[in-house]
Amino acid sequence: MLEVNSVYRTAVALRTALIGKQTLAFDALGCDGIRPVLGHTIEEVRTFGKNIEIVWDDGVVLHSTFRISGSWHLYRRGEQWSKPRERAQVVIAVSDWIAVCFGAVSLETFRDFDPRRHPILGKLGPDLCHHDVDIEECVDRMMQYEDKDATVSEVLLDQRVVSGVGNVFRCEIMWACEVHPWARIGEMKRAECRELLTLAQESLLAHMHYEAKNAASPKEMAVYGRQGKSCQRCGDLIRVAHHGEANRVLYWCPGCQTGHQPLVSPNFTPLSIDRTPAFGDSHPASQLLMNEFATMRGDGQDSFS
Asked: What are the helix and strand counts (H, E) for the chain?
């Protein structure tokens, strides 16, 4: 029988290989439901029991369940597979790795639930991926947001305001505009909201342009996936946390993202510790692994038994 610890070790390997990477190819035979959009970034690999979930930055989740046999395999590009390709249930390709699922008893895709982003509970806002989107209407939706205490980082992912902004672009545009991730939407000026949304649209359209040419974007990420590294603008260390109703990963620079910084930060779950860039692994999976090791050592929680 597939042991839980084996699932855990598999998840650790998947995190190291996939987290922070753009999806270049995705194929899932016999897996119904929504599919991750090529070019989106893999953000998390979660485990519970004999289940492994791979999460993309736009909230799409691939859930896999194993019983007696089966597992995820990792192969370098060009490496020979240990099992026949026709037996592969899911294939995910990133820049340097290919993750292949064999022998899962259950596979499904869905979107992480967030009531404020659920299309059934509110009409979708304008899509920033369109050239002719009315930016002023998007600004109106931000300025008229019902919860004035909501953070800007939460509002940017609320599909009733605008759609198309994934988590990667959320982090990047807030850094570019020097807005604190916990800035209250009620304190934002109209010009500041317009700047955020205009930059978001420009970034999304540029990304689509490179995707259409099957080319990688030449622009390096400023904060996303760079926790523990020095900020390109001010030299402070990039941080990462879980934040908001949907508990999404959020990267930011505390040194220069000071616009509308609150006196007291809302509750959040830290994922990283401060460290100099010269020490430690800066990969997004590194601190997740360290945190899980701490839990398994016995920090008051039962992880695996």
From this structure: 6, 11
Do 72 and 214 fall into the same domain? no
Q: CA angle, 101 as apex, 99 and 106 as ends, to 5°?
A: 140
Cα four-point dihedral sign 270, 276, 277, 278: negative
| Spatial contact of 135 and 201, defined as CB atoms under 8 Å apart | yes
**C-beta separation of 198 from 134 below 8 A:** no
Q: Is residue 143 part of a domain?
A: yes
Structural domain range at position 11:
4-111
Q: Are 204 and 164 in contact (CB under 8 A)?
A: yes
- Report helix angle 4-18 to 284-298, nearest 10: 160
| Residue 303 in domain | no
- Rg (C-alpha) for the chain, rounded Å, is 20
Number of domains the chain contains: 2
- The answer to whether 99 and 14 are in contact (CB under 8 A) is yes
Residue spans of beta strands (DSSP E) within 49-182? 51-56, 60-65, 71-76, 90-93, 97-102, 106-111
| Contacts for 134 with CB less than 8 Å, ≥ 6 apart | 126
Please write the tens of the pLDDT for every residue from 48-88.
888 899 998 877 889 998 877 788 999 999 899 999 999 99
pLDDT-based confidence at residue 275 (cuts at 50, 70, 90)? very low
Q: CA-to-CA distance for 10 and 12, rounded, in angstroms?
A: 5
